């Protein structure tokens, strides 16, 4: 490994962190956990209609560039020269298509939590024996769900004429946010690198989790031409250099990780059996399974944890929760229960000693792991004349903890060994009450990292350890470790099991709210027909087709 000090100067690693709500650029000193400079910009969400979530890809680029410029200004000319590489970590599953000749997006980015692709899901299920949503799990590790990129890409191909035309003329490129950023940073239309890493590719529903290549059967099922897709690389290698027109021109880019996998690295969960949970707008629990691909039979997904250069890939089991911090935002913006999320959720929830038997299932866009029910919707139950907003706020916090227990229960069944402790990070972990509730509801110690952003740290490590860079050694004694504190459970087993039983009752009441379970009635021909209908009337007509089909089938 290179010396940390070279010619008396610190070697620095930059990170682009493009999350769901915020874009940030920050800089670390190699082998150290503290950001020495950072700048962040909030992204403006686009919601064309209920259940749809988009972002402007050009605004993402503008935010990245401005953040880099601000941080370079903070560093000054001397320190700027010490930035030897950068890494990229990003919101996963978010889907972007663009014109490779002009560099312009062909449509807004469709964000990971967007649920417009229900009809796409039905189309794929119609091709599968018994409509089995787990049919492809042995290939890609994932259940059929609107969550994953392939469904969003197929929707774009069918419903956006500009995308169809660009594909026909072979000038359309697809990528998740990491790919879009890398392509632009390395030159865009002038030689930009069209690449992704294994962690992001594993969230598309198109990568074979054994071979780590795009899978021909899945591409055929979705009717997606392979020339759209980026080349899959490891998470830690030199991909290219920053091109003209960007700050830090000539600096290498040598690390890419989906944000949840990056948090796993930042938490130093390198050993099999270690797990972390990140609490943000959603909630994501990853359990390191080493080089073994554990196929879940209890609602979890098999995903890539990371791959360092030529080393064997490390896998993980993951449970994804669609709504965590987003429930607190809903309490503020929609209900007016709180004014400041960080302060009020804890202080108001502490004003009551329990939820008063109120349970809140925040399934605003369906339930992810371990249920995978797109027909679920949010529900608050157990209300009495004595229930207050404080009870509901506390129930919203407990909902995050109960959903985490759902995932831990599934992991215990899949792996055979209960988790001994849970490492946690993310903006919500500053809430001490939430952390204590999490320990009480799961019955295991919760280890909270003292770091402003574990996610950025993880990809800084991956970028710094890449072959040819080698300024970060994760096994070195001098590597600074993230300090933490611990929340121990104070509840009895009977208490937490009784409450968890009530939670499961509430979950059952949240199911089946959207539409009847669909039989195999969606065909490619009908899908093509619906594709020609303007989006504003699509929902009404598709629902009518569903009712008519079920009537005649009966």
Write the layout of secondary structure elements.
Layout: E1 5-6, E2 9-10, E3 12-18, E4 22-29, E5 35-42, E6 54-55, H1 57-80, E7 83-90, E8 96-99, E9 109-110, H2 118-126, H3 137-140, H4 149-159, H5 161-168, E10 172-175, H6 177-185, E11 195-197, H7 198-201, H8 216-222, E12 231-233, E13 236-241, E14 252-258, H9 259-266, E15 275-279, E16 283-290, E17 301-306, E18 314-321, H10 325-333, H11 341-349, E19 359-361, E20 379-381, H12 389-415, E21 422-425, H13 432-442, E22 446-449, H14 454-464, E23 484-487, H15 493-510, H16 524-531, H17 535-553
Parallel strand pairs: 3-7, 7-14, 11-12, 15-21, 21-22
Antiparallel strand pairs: 1-2, 3-4, 4-5, 6-9, 8-10, 13-14, 15-16, 16-18, 17-18, 19-20, 22-23
Helix pairs in contact: 4-5, 9-14, 10-12, 11-12, 12-13
Report what the structure shows.
This protein is α+β, with helices and mostly antiparallel strands and 554 residues long. 35% of the residues lie in helices and 20% in strands. The protein has a seven-stranded mixed sheet. It has a six-stranded mixed sheet with strand order 5-4-3-7-14-13, with helices on both faces. A hairpin with a 7-residue loop joins strand 17 and strand 18. It is globular. The N terminus and C terminus are likely disordered.
Helix content: 25-40%
Q: Give the percentage of residues in beta strands.
A: 15-25%
Strand order of the largest sheet: 17-18-16-15-21-22-23
Q: The biggest beta sheet, please?
A: 7 strands, mixed
Span from first to last CA?
70 Å
Mean pLDDT: 88
Low-confidence stretches: 1-8, 517-523, 545-554
Molecular shape: globular
Over the alpha carbons, how many angstroms does the gyration radius reach?
A: 23 Å
Number of helices, counting only DSSP H or I runs of 4 residues or more: 17
């Amino acid at each position: 490994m290179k010396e940390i000090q070279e010619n008396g100067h610190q070697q620095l690693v930059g990170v682009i962190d493009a999350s769901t709500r915020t874009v940030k650029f920050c800089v670390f000193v190699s082998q150290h956990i503290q950001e020495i400079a950072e700048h962040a910009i909030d992204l403006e969400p686009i919601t064309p209609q209920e259940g749809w979530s988009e972002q402007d890809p050009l605004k993402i680029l503008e935010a990245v560039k401005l953040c880099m410029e601000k941080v370079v200004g903070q560093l000054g000319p001397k320190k700027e020269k010490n930035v030897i590489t950068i890494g990229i970590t990003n919101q996963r599953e978010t889907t972007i298509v663009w014109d490779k000749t002009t560099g312009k997006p062909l449509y807004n980015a469709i964000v990971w939590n967007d649920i417009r692709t229900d009809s796409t899901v039905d189309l794929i299920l119609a091709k599968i024996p018994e409509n089995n949503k787990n049919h492809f799990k042995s290939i890609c590790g994932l259940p059929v769900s609107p969550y994953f990129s392939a469904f969003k890409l197929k929707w774009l191909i069918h419903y956006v004429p500009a995308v169809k035309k660009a594909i026909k003329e072979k000038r359309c490129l697809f990528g998740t946010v990491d790919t879009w950023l890398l392509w632009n940073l390395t030159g865009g239309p002038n030689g930009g690198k069209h690449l992704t890493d294994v962690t992001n590719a594993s969230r598309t529903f198109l990568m074979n989790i054994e071979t780590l290549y795009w899978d021909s059967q899945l591409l055929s099922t979705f009717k997606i031409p392979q020339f759209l897709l980026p080349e899959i690389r490891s998470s830690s290698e030199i991909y290219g250099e920053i091109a003209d027109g960007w700050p830090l021109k000539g600096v290498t880019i040598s690390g890419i990780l989906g944000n949840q996998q990056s948090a796993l690295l930042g938490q130093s969960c390198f050993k099999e059996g270690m797990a972390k949970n990140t609490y943000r707008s959603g909630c994501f629990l990853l359990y390191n399974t080493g080089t073994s691909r554990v196929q879940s039979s209890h609602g979890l997904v098999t995903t890539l944890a990371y791959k360092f250069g030529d080393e064997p890939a490390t896998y993980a089991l993951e449970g994804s929760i669609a709504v965590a911090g987003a429930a607190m935002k809903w309490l503020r913006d929609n209900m007016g229960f709180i004014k400041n999320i960080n302060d009020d959720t804890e202080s108001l929830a502490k004003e009551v000693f329990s939820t008063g038997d109120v349970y809140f299932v925040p399934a605003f866009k369906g339930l992810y792991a371990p249920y995978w029910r797109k027909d679920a919707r949010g529900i608050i139950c157990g209300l009495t004349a004595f229930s207050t907003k404080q009870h509901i706020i506390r129930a919203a916090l407990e909902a995050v903890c109960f959903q985490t227990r759902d995932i831990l229960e599934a992991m215990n069944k899949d792996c055979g060994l209960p988790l001994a402790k849970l490492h946690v990070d993310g903006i919500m972990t500053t809430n001490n009450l939430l952390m204590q509730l999490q320990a009480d509801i799961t019955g295991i110690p919760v280890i909270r990292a003292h770091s402003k952003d574990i996610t950025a740290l993880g990809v800084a490590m991956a970028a710094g350890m890449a072959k040819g860079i080698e300024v970060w050694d994760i096994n070195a004694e001098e590597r600074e470790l993230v300090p933490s504190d611990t929340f121990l459970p104070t509840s009895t087993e009977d208490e937490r099991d009784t409450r968890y039983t009530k939670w499961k009752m509430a979950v059952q009441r949240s199911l089946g709210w959207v539409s009847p379970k669909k039989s195999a009635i969606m065909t490619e021909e009908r899908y093509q027909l619906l594709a020609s209908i303007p989006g504003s009337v699509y929902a009404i007509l598709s629902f009518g087709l569903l009712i008519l089909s079920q009537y005649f089938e009966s």
